Amino acid sequence: MPSHAAAQRILDAVCDEYASRLGRLARAHGSAAVAPRRKTVVVLLGNHSAGKSSFVNWYAGARVQKTSVAIETTAFTLVTAGKARETLAGPATLQLFPELKHVAALKGVLPCLATEIVPSAARNFPLITFIDTPGLVDGGVKYPYDPEAVLIKLATEADLVFSFFDPIGQALCSRTMNVVEAICESQGHKIFFYLSKADTIPDESDRQKVLIQIAQSLTHRIQDRQFSLDIPPIFIPTEENSNVPVRNHMDGLLAIIDSTIAQGVQKALGSLKKDCATIALAITEKLKADDAARRFNKRDIGRGFLLLSAATTPIFVLISVGIYRILNGLVESNGPEVLGLGGEVITSVLQILDKLVREMAWKHIGYVLIASVFAFLGWWFFIKKRKTLTTEEREEMLKDLELVQVTLPARHEELYAEYFEAHV
User: How many CB atoms are closer than 10 A to CB 230?
Assistant: First the structure.
């Protein structure tokens, strides 16, 4: 079975886990989990007639883009595999590729965005989205947007940037070189240079002159670049050019794409494992906080009880004295038999409290009441229990923890085993 089929299954499985379970857990527990992309994004840039559209058609195994030396379009076309042939305009493109919203926000870009969906399984096309950019030219050609700003932003969303230099056309177009320079400054690891249509210059010396000219211009523009400058010649292989005495480095370009796809699969699996660990940590911290709250509530309930007792005892004494005086008034008016035997016992106890209050100066009683108020306030503070999880919430959280500590890591190992089986 082709390796790209296994890679596609793994990427689909990882993305499905993010869409179904991992994304929900991340939102529920305040963690960040960004789903990896299902496809590698490759931006193609260069002057007009550099062979960008021809390369897309060849790689996809279908005639998707128009190929011409004329400057016919200023559109940015995303070419991706799908179930049926379809063309999407700008708004629909943003629905399919929401990560491009910040690019579409630039003036004049949205009407120039389009997507071509092609039902093709050629090479690794099902795992790739090509962004075919307008051919750049100098002079009086006007664009409805700032082409340099748009291309630089697109490069930030790309996994790879292929810059094609046409040996016949304006290979050293100033606009193209400005974009190349800007991309190299911040994202130089993504960009690769190629001398396209190399079969049109079969003479070795002529081809070397073109390569030297391009290399000198690039070196002048990106002299601080920290890696070697390589401009391998490539061309679309056909029956007509099969005998051209030019070494075609298209295999090297395809190897870079394949390697980037493989890295994307590994990154997706790594993200799955990392995000599971991050969510598990968030859940564990919540459970620890709940345990601490439960211990706090259990420890301070006794202290709160003592404070409440201290706060209510003086008030209880004063109420008891009041009851005694009411009962004493009834006895004086109607005789002791009005209370019965139980009433006499209660009256005796209350009489002791009345005597205690009489012996205390009212000033002292005021102090006791003030102390009672402070004791009540202290009780009010300590009796306020910290919020804890309900039994149902805690059980649900423990299930989520098992999912990210056991179930999904096991799924991660299964997918890695499938990846190794297909590639090793």
Answer: 11
